[in-house]
Amino acid sequence: MALVGAVCAAALATLSAVPAQAHQRPQWDVKDTGVFDVRFRGLAAVSRHTAWVAGTKGTVLRTTDGGGTWRDVSPPGAGELEFRDIEAFDTRRAVALSIGEGEASRVYRTDDGGATWTESFRNTDARAFYDCLTFFDRRHGLAMSDPVDGRFRILSTSDGGRSWKVLPAAGMPAAQPGEAGFAASGQCLVSAGSRDVWLATGGAARARVLHSADRGLTWTAAGAPIPAGDPARGVFGLAFRDRAHGLAVGGDYRPEQSSPRAAARTADTGRTWRPADRPPPAYRSGVAWLPHSRTAALAVGPTGTDLTTDGGHTWRTVDTGSYDTVDCTPDPGCWAAGEQGRVARLER
User: Fold this and answer.
1) β partners of residue 134
2) How far apart (Å, rounded) are the C-alpha atoms in residues 62 and 265?
3) Do residues 71 and 62 make contact, with C-beta atoms less than 8 angstroms apart?
4) Are 145 and 99 in contact (CB under 8 A)?
5) Contact by Cβ (8 Å): 316, 307
6) Are 7 and 291 in contact (CB under 8 A)?
7) How far is residue 7 from each of residues 2, 17, 44, measured CA to CA in Å?
């Protein structure tokens, strides 16, 4: 996002300061979603007023009044599914992804605010496991699966998620042994602009970020300096404020394991990644640039929220609440979601 002078919202201005006092920390305003047994790893922030969340037990909720009230708009018959990603275009149109082996991986689309849903894709390949999806615009989008026949599989849509096709695998680099994506925050596949897309990986000897500049037809891979070498370690979330500048977060999701190098940054479209000089203190699964800032971003995870005001060089913990994913909008607004039906908005 372009710099538009000083950050105009008081909450974001507070975030951009460098306070030493606890009372100066930014505050998430936790919203009452009315559910306590659902974990929301899918989040689509449309504005300060409208957001969609998707999670376990086939649950999809939507608010249009800033989190004051929530409507259960879950697809009928989806109670056994695990929704891990959702992308929304406005208050009425959204696309949701459920994850899992074989037919558990599905895509649903709504055009009427969740009153009705259409299943637009059901995976019939037992070897595939879809993790994340992203959209370049209202028509063009991609979804990614863990490797099939040694390469990550990419689905493509050109009609807003109403239909999907598998892209040829010839332009995808070979996967490392054990390499996969993490369906932890809906941010293992992200896009910026009309053609650039990045894919985050872990589980192998080396964590990587793959980049495509042609909407998923051809890819290049770059190593990321985030803990790897174990199925529980790697890059879990990505965020790009433009096609050059990106952030990566991750680590080891097991609570008993430390994650001393949980963040990295790039300034060259993901060709090279540099570790944070002072990373978050623990595993982080979600990350988002703050609106109208070239240097400020939030990272979230089960043990807290961290803030950078220098483009990912250094991070400091500003909240200890548990969140899995975070998303911000230009108007400006930031939302976070996670376990026990937890959804919050950053207040002005």
Assistant:
1) 142
2) 32
3) yes
4) no
5) yes
6) yes
7) 11, 11, 22
The token pair at 112 is 């009427």
Distance between CA atoms of residues 32 and 341, nearest Å? 8
Q: How many residues does the chain have?
A: 348
* Count of CB atoms situated within 10 Å of the CB of 29: 12
Which of these, 327, 293, 331, lies nearest to 1 by C-alpha position? 293
Q: How confident is the model at residue 251 (pLDDT cuts 50, 70, 90)?
A: very high
CA distances 8 to 19, 134, 215, 239, 293, Å, are: 18, 28, 34, 22, 10
Q: List, for residues 176-228, the tens digit of each pLDDT value.
A: 999 999 999 999 999 999 999 999 999 999 999 999 999 999 999 999 999 99
User: In which element (H, E) is residue 13 found?
Assistant: helix 10-16
**Whole-number Cα distances in Å, 242 to 192, 235, 270, 292:** 6, 19, 11, 12
Q: Using CA atoms, how far apart are residues 253 and 329, in angstroms rounded to an integer?
A: 27
* Residue 1, CB-side half-sphere exposure with 13 Å CA sphere: 21
Rounded CA-CA distance 122/117 in Å is: 14
The token duo for 17 is 């300061």
Model pTM greater than 0.70? Answer: yes
3-state SS, 196-239, equals EEEEECECCCCCEEEEECCCCCCCEEEECCCCCCCCCEEEEEEE
At 14-71, the pLDDT tens digits run 444 433 333 345 689 999 999 999 999 999 999 999 999 999 999 999 999 999 999 9
**Under 8 Å between Cβ of 12 and 296:** yes
By percentage, how much of the chain surpasses pLDDT 90? 91
